[in-house]
Protein 1
Amino acid sequence: MVELLRALEKTADLVGRELDRLLVAAEGPRGRVVEAMRAGSLNGGKRLRPFLLLETASLFDVPPHRALNAAVALEMVHCYSLVHDDLPAMDDSDLRRGKPTVHKLFDDATAILAGDGLLTGAFAVLAEEATHPDPAVRCALVASLAQAAGAAGMVGGQMIDLSPQRGQLDLEGITELQNLKTGRLIRHACEAGAILGGAGPAERQALVDYAGALGLAFQIADDLLDVEGTTAGLGKPAQADAALGKATFVGQLGIEGARQRARALVAEAQRSLRQLPGDTRTLCDTATFVVERQV
Ligand code: GRG
């Protein structure tokens, strides 16, 4: 696990430096939105999604610098979703990654624009030739990220999360919501590695299975942290789900039941890795990390 944490740190450093290079400060009133985009993306974070993308690409011998654009684009979409999720019209949160949220540092309108800038900027990054020399691969990455982030993916999940029915969801409903809201970007991370690496259909399916189980385990761990963690430890408000009246995996399964389900999903994710080429030990450890993490 120490090795995994070191590898995660290395990716976080790489992604942070690339975002810093891309988000160039601007003069005049436009500079404000760039500053807000920087505040929403250069504020820490585990960078788990870029890490998964780089690791899955490496199974097919794609070196990190050849997968970096796709990894950074994915993190930009994730950061946009957090900036918008924290807005008063959504989860209304003052704290993210241990720091004041973007709308608190700036204002609501600037936070909306900063999220928009990160989202659209992600697709500009994917379209760059540096992402992959073959335009068909770049198109496949664009399509995969758009599907994962859009109304059939994360945005759709967020809509269910904000719906009046949210408090009454049963286990199946919560699973669907979380598969969309959190799971689809995680699945894109693994599919993008497969796209960059020219993986075959069976390998791609194995990665989709891995990501599906990992994404749910990640969300159950998030629900457990929300109940058991502290605001200082998490860097975001604890017990937020209960305050918002949200039905969660912990609410449905109880603390011990949720923990058991998360462990079973980790084992399921790890089993999927057996179908893949290369050294899958890091992805195996990542599945364990996802449920043992404290933030
Ligand atoms: C606004 C369209 C739109 C979507 C927002 C992802 C999301 C949808 C909201 C985040 C709310 C939340 C706390 C979800 C729980 C799981 C999750 C995505 C946590 C944050 O991801 P981490 O733990 O965060 O990877 P870091 O800070 O490490 O990047």
Protein 2
Amino acid sequence: MHKGVGVSPGVVVGVAYRVESVLGSRELSMLEDQAQVPAEIARFDRAVEETAVELETFVQRVALELGDSAADIFKSHLQLVGDPGLAGKVHAAIEKRRLTAFSALQAVMNSYAAQFARIDHDYFRERIIDVRDVMTRISSHLSRKAGDPDDSDPAVDSPRGEEPVVLVAHEILPSQAMSLGDLPIAGIVTEVGGGTGHAAILARSRGIPAVSGVDNIMDDVVNGDHMIVDGREGHVIVRPDREATAAYRKVQREYFHYKDSLIANRDQPAVSCDGTRVELLANINNLADAQAAEQVGAAGVGLFRTEYLFLTHHDVPGEEEQYEYYRQIVQNSPGKTAVIRTLDLGGDKTVPYLGRRNEPNPFMGWRSIRIFFENPKLLTTQIRAILRAGRHGKISMLFPMITTVEELRRLNAMVKEVKATLKREGIPFAEDVKTGVMIEVPAAAVCIDAILRETDFISIGSNDLIQYLVAADRDNPKVAHLCEPLSPSIFRVIHMVLEACQRTGTPVTVCGEMAGQARSALVLFGMGLRRFSMSPAFIPQVKALLASVTTAQAERFAHHVLQLSTSEEIRAYLTERLREVSRMLEAIDYV
Ligand code: PEP
Ligand code: MG
């Protein structure tokens, strides 16, 4: 058994499917005949040419949209593609070792990786990322050609077969997380990444169990191995014996059965036992999530993270494309209601076309709206697209990572200016799109009264708020224990923000993971929160939870929690209360 961190609850018994990368340990494949060598070399050269043309287009488009410095990254990639040394090495590997073009590329990549690993300087060592990016591009052009069946997309192959598929990967990159979105995956296991990694977000949004931080799992698993993933306990069992399989299959059946029975509440109103109404909204990352939100009976979309549209793009998506996508999102959202968050890149989510900064503390650095202030065109394009899409439903616009009132003023002024421009240009848009602020930086929480004077609504992003409040990266196992949502500090801060919103009558939502976790949801409801936004998969259970408490009961819980001094006391107290309210919900709650 391997031990990791459970990042999405549930249990699955399935078969392994490895997500390989160009750097992966996939076996090299050979051409059948020496006579195939010239054609294989020509095939590689064609893929290189196509990659160069693609990169030239990116350079031009990014330079136009974001300026020359942002295009530098692609210029350096172009140089790498055109490097005769690279072509020479790949040609030699095809010729002398009779490798397929894909395998030759992989072999060269592996030797580069070994050389880079020996470099004693972070910046240069990390340039391997650029090399890997270029190689991945070339190999994807290779795989678009008919030919060697082995030369499939190096990043994501399609799993086949009837049994549930457990994806096993070193890490899941943002673009992979999106392309995996359509596959029939029933579980995810990764070596790196934590509760806020892409694998975790993908898993939770689809309600599938996932475990991250499992050291060396790639060394122990081959495609087709039977596996058990226990997302609550963080356990992974590879090639389980018959008893373990039978035991876990039973848990899996019970879990599904219970979840299915919860889904049955989709058409019931979200109310507490004594009739207090709440709004249960969905956090979504793409169109499929919007549809999932509808299926589980969400009242609307409380958070649409637009970065996934950008992460899966080779370059900046233009205004028309964004407009079209937001229009589809709102039209497919429950009640045609969606809160669209402006781009929240940086931290762990980077795109090559914005340039890669070598920041010692990326989460404390150039992220989110901070990027926009340097690239205002990027933001005005997005605001235009959101305002235009506002005609097709009820859209609000949400700004992430606000730290100061000055930033907010600047953003509000930009929205005003964009509206004036659209008017001047005679382009139709929704005048009444509300704008809101995410409270996820402690500085903004502390100055909530000042922020409230200049915004229409608030959304509390507890995921980031927690890690900034306790100054601990939740993906760093050494300090992750400090990122505890059931803590006195986080509940006090949220209470302060909720009170300020209640005083001023400002609509407020909690859209971090806490909103979907039973113990914290009880407290938030008791503090007066009436709008919860969460991964669609959690909506049925939060609805069931709230239906089993009275408002007065939850208020008592919240009042008591605010008197406690330690996380340990809070956890013990809430576990007891949850057990009284619903034993089954306690069993499937994961934090
Ligand atoms: C948050 O920080 O709580 C949040 C909802 O935003 P994200 O998880 O996308 O950072
Ligand atoms: Mg956040």
